[in-house]
Design goal:
Length: about 60
């Protein structure tokens, strides 16, 4: 199931009506920060901690 252009526009218009312009900008900003933090945490989990790397060498 794919969303077409009309469906996306309809969702955006409904979100604008429900939340209003000011709140929608705040929601978008919070969502962007959450995604950024999530990506940073994923990258940090991929790298072993300095202490773990030293223990593996022993």
């Amino acid at each position: 199931m794919r969303l077409g252009t009309m469906e996306i526009l309809l969702i955006l218009v409904l979100a604008l009506v429900i939340f209003g312009g000011g709140k929608l900008a705040g929601v978008g900003k919070a969502l962007g920060q959450s995604i950024k933090e999530f990506k940073n945490e994923i990258k940090d989990d991929d790298k072993p901690a300095a202490g773990e790397a030293a223990k593996k060498d022993e």
